[in-house]
Design goal:
Strand content of chain A: over 45%
Number of strands of chain B: 11
Structural class of chain A: mainly beta
Radius of gyration of chain B: 14 Å
Largest interface: A-B, 22 and 23 residues
Mean pLDDT of chain A: 91
Helix content of chain A: under 10%
Distance between the termini of chain A: 37 Å
Radius of gyration of chain A: 14 Å
Largest sheet of chain A: 7 strands, mixed
Helix content of chain B: under 10%
Number of helices of chain B: 0
Number of strands of chain A: 11
Number of helices of chain A: 0
Strand content of chain B: over 45%
Oligomer: heterodimer
Distance between the termini of chain B: 39 Å
Order of helices and strands of chain A: EEEEEEEEEEE
Low-confidence stretches of chain B: none
Chain lengths: 118, 113
């Protein structure tokens, strides 16, 4: 089945530093990937839609300069949290849709990245 | 609005059936999905149903869809302790052609041995 690999699974960084999270589709090509943020005991909040070869589309209230998204290939999207602060601590999850499948085929999710900013 | 509602908690005994309910909002959703999230992990697709179907069964899982009431349910037969997790329903309304998911609030299922 479709596998989405997300790295790192856990990262602790100091306030003011930047952190890059990678999301890879291992056995399919993903023209579109989605980045979510999940607060403890809450649902997933869509942050942005990552489109291969073009600019990401950010949801309202999400700072594009704070959360940089790059989708340079059909199998890799990266989310960089720039100048991280403790309030950015959260669980970040990416998902991808097989570009060969229907436009509304199920999304496949990575295992998430737990970011802690000290 | 775009709220997808679920009850927050459900507790069942091992071997019993679990029924998790979901109320969605957008009738343009072609598919509706159920995902499972274990602690500290991402989401695992359990099953999904096409909007013109009323019921779909897949081994221990049965999905019922009432499109008129915009109500979706997931029944887990013979619930096991390994089924303890958070369950999310999701709709994918056709908004701007991107089919973004809108997730429910999640139901935390606890299975008692």
């Amino acid at each position: 089945g479709a596998v989405v690999s997300q790295h790192p699974s856990r990262v602790i960084c100091k306030s003011g530093t930047s952190v890059k999270i990678e999301c890879r589709s291992l056995d399919f090509q993903a023209t579109t990937m989605f980045w979510y943020r999940q607060f403890p005991k809450q649902s997933l909040m869509l942050m942005a839609t990552s489109n291969e070869g073009s600019k990401a589309t950010y949801e309202q209230g999400v700072e594009k300069d704070k959360f940089l998204i790059n989708h340079a290939s059909l199998t890799l999207s990266t989310l960089t949290v720039t100048s991280a602060h403790p309030e950015d601590s959260s669980f970040y999850i990416c998902s991808a849709r097989d570009g060969q499948s229907s436009y509304n085929s199920p999304l496949h999710f990575g295992n998430g990245t737990r970011l802690t900013v000290t | 609005g775009e709220d997808v509602e679920q009850s927050l908690f459900l507790s069942v005994r091992e071997g019993d059936s679990s029924v998790i309910n979901c109320t969605y909002t957008d009738s343009s959703s072609t598919y509706l999905y159920w995902y499972k999230q274990e602690p500290g992990a991402g989401l695992q697709l359990l099953t999904y149903i096409f909007s013109n179907m009323d019921m779909k069964q897949d081994q221990r899982l049965t999905v019922l869809l009432n499109k008129k009431d915009k109500h979706l349910s997931l029944r887990i037969a013979d619930t096991q302790t390994g089924d303890s997790a958070i369950y999310f329903c999701a709709e994918s309304p056709h908004t701007s052609g991107t089919y973004k998911y809108i997730f429910g609030t999640g139901t935390r299922l606890k299975v008692l041995a």
